[in-house]
């Protein structure tokens, strides 16, 4: 029998709150259109001045020496892993992450060793990583779930240094997030960002690699352009691919990057309303941000005290209250995905439990405070 409550009325919701929404202000759309007209007229549609400017400004955001723009977050990960020479090597990967984290590693020739999650941050614990380290381990991938940089990350950085393995950040969620003054993208050997349309900032499609390693930056530029030694010659020195970012995508990304601080503050304002509203709930608790952390709130994650029918919950909230819940992070851990079953070596119970018990509340730039209060009221009536 269902344990999801709701009103008996069949009336349509008076307010609708989407799960997510992309915002480009009118003046931003005009700025973008003007520059796309420019590159269309010049014919410089890839690897031009706007891509270079986007790279420079993103490197400044992260406080690193190099940023390399590519066509997706997935390809940014694969390029990093190819540059690190993972073929035939083991790499520790959180089981609670998106398909692309492990898939990029497999496409680069590496072997994922899946690690259980940290209930506090939805990331990974240094203790769990250390238990999985073997002489075959080449590196560690960490993921900043929902834009939260774990307070345990400095310990993981130290662990990687002590054990002589590299550390890569999958920062697809974490544009502008930080912990203890260090920005996501500057903790590891290299980092990968996504600009897919659902992210805090977007370029339409696209990704970015950040690193302080000049060799890594050079390798990434080679890999993204069909493995060519340079843009002007057809001397192919790596098994690369067409992973370039176009100038129109870079133009879109530049404008959203400019407004990233304001967009993050929009999300933090909504998060503060959620924090206050959920403080009285018995059955639903928000995932807390570390005291020294700054979260961009790509997702606002809340954990139910017990497993419920999430599909039914979403249906009730949407149909009766007009509230759309965002996608989970993640609905199923990787070891429960059919394509990764052969990498399932040991039980990973924490991820199986928490992946099934959390929800993500709607949050986006431009969301009204009244929308957030409406979400809290709907959750109060449905979950209690």
Provide keyphrases for this structure.
384 residues; Aspartate Aminotransferase, domain 2; 2 domains; 16% strand; 38% helix; alpha/beta
Uncertain segments are: none
Q: Tell me the series of helices and strands, N- to C-terminal.
A: HHEHEHEHEHEEEEEHEEHHEEEHHEH
CATH architecture of the largest domain: 3-Layer(aba) Sandwich
Span between termini: 17 Å
Word description of this protein:
- There is one protein chain.
- The protein is of the alpha/beta class and 384 residues long.
- The chain has two domains: 26-258, Aspartate Aminotransferase, domain 2, CATH 3.40.640.10; 260-382, Aspartate Aminotransferase, domain 1, CATH 3.90.1150.
- It is 38% helix and 16% strand.
- It has helices at 26-42, 49-62, 73-83, 99-107, 126-132, 153-163, 214-224, 247-258, 260-278, 310-321, 349-357, 369-382; strands at 66-70, 90-94, 111-115, 137-143, 166-170, 178-179, 182-183, 190-194, 207-211, 228-230, 233-236, 284-286, 293-294, 300-304, 358-361.
- Helix 10 (310-321) packs across helix 12.
- The longest helix has 19 residues, at 260-278.
- The relative contact order is 0.18.
């Amino acid at each position: 029998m269902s344990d999801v409550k709701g009103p008996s009325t069949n009336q349509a919701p008076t307010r609708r709150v989407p799960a997510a929404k992309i915002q480009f202000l009118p003046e931003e759309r005009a700025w973008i259109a003007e520059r796309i007209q420019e590159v269309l007229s010049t014919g410089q549609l890839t690897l031009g001045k706007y891509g270079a400017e986007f790279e420079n400004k993103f490197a400044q955001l992260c406080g690193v020496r190099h940023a390399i723009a590519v066509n997706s977050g997935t390809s940014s990960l694969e390029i990093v892993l190819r540059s690190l020479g993972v073929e035939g090597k083991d790499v520790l990967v959180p089981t609670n992450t998106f398909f692309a984290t492990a898939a990029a590693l497999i496409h680069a020739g590496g072997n994922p060793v899946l690690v259980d999650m940290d209930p506090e941050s939805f990331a990974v614990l240094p203790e769990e990583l250390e238990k999985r380290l073997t002489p075959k381990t080449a590196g560690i991938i960490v993921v900043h779930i929902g834009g939260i940089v774990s307070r345990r990350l400095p310990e993981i950085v130290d662990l990687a240094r002590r054990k002589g393995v590299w550390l890569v950040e999958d920062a697809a969620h974490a544009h502008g997030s930080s912990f203890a003054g260090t920005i996501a993208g500057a903790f590891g050997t290299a980092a990968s960002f996504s600009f897919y349309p659902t992210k805090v900032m977007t370029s339409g499609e696209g990704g970015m690699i950040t690193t302080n390693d000049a060799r890594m930056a050079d390798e990434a530029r080679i890999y993204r352009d069909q493995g060519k030694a340079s843009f002007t010659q057809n001397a192919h020195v790596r098994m690369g691919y067409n992973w370039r970012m176009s100038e129109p995508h870079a133009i879109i990304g530049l404008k959203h990057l400019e407004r990233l601080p304001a967009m993050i503050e929009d999300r933090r304002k909504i998060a503060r309303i959620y924090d206050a509203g959920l403080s009285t709930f018995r059955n639903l608790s928000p995932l807390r941000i570390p005291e020294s952390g700054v979260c961009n709130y790509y997702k606002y994650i809340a954990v139910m005290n017990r497993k419920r029918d999430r599909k039914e919950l979403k249906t009730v909230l949407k149909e009766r209250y007009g509230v759309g819940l965002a996608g989970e992070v993640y609905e199923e851990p990787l070891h429960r995905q059919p394509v990764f079953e052969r990498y399932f070596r040991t039980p990973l119970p924490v991820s199986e439990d928490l992946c099934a018990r959390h929800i993500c509340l709607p949050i986006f730039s431009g969301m009204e405070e009244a929308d957030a209060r409406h979400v809290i009221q709907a959750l109060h009536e449905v979950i209690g």
